[in-house]
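Worked example 2:
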Amino acid sequence: MDKEDKSTFHLQFAHLFFLILIFVCIGYYFFNQYQSSQNVLIAAQQQKIDTTDQQLKAVQEEVSQAQQSNQSTVDDSTIAAEWQNRVAKVICTWNYSNGETYSGLQGSSLLINLSGYGLVAVTNKHVVTDSTTGSPLAPNTCTVGVYGVGARTTNLNSSLDVDTTPIHSLRDWDVAYISLDDTHASQQSDNSVFDKSAAAPLKICTDNEARVGDKLIVLGYPAIGTDRGITVTDGIVSGIESDYYVTSAKIDHGNSGGAAVLVKDDCYLGIPTWVENLGGFESLGRILKASYILGN
């Protein structure tokens, strides 16, 4: 091959090389374009998947909240049914020597078999104390009854101080025990509810069991409420003091002395106490802790 042929060959080879290089560059460009379009499609698909997941989670959360709400309603009604025969109405009367009644008070109570006392109705001290005469006197009679089931009446001597039997009061707290055993009380109707209350164990909340925000229900016989049975009000633990829980649940003269039940653990939280402010209207209710009432 002479010099001219070699030069022609090199020139053709260079043209071929550059042609191949151009094709490679064009191919690489279109490949990148394809890859970019695929990435855009993948990102769009992933965004749709993420959006769907978020919507699914939102629906699942709504379903869960609805189920919890329904379950809470069922729990409240179940707890109310469980406790209603342990919460009794209390009506105490004070009589003149001729038998005429000059004063009467009413409230609610919890039926419990208390160690050292037997079957008692735990209520507020102010329900069994009349101060109109200038000194606290125990009533002549206290009738404790569960609507539609039965009642017992405890007879007392009104000259006795409220710290004597058959009414026992806690000196530092607005709490009193009315004895309902056969020694002090007479049966007016069906006695089974009292026998069951005496035998049934009472689940008591510990002092550290309740937290601010926990739901509770109060069972009792409020002055303004149904006249055909027990009334249930609900609320939360709004605050905690050393001896009391502060609650948003409605408490008035009638259901004061009843039972406050912590919903989450279905246990006896304490005794609801009505609080009157200077204007004569109720403020946040107070619940004396069970440990102060029952000594646990």
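The CA atoms of residues 180 and 275 lie 27 Å apart. The longest strand covers residues 101-114.
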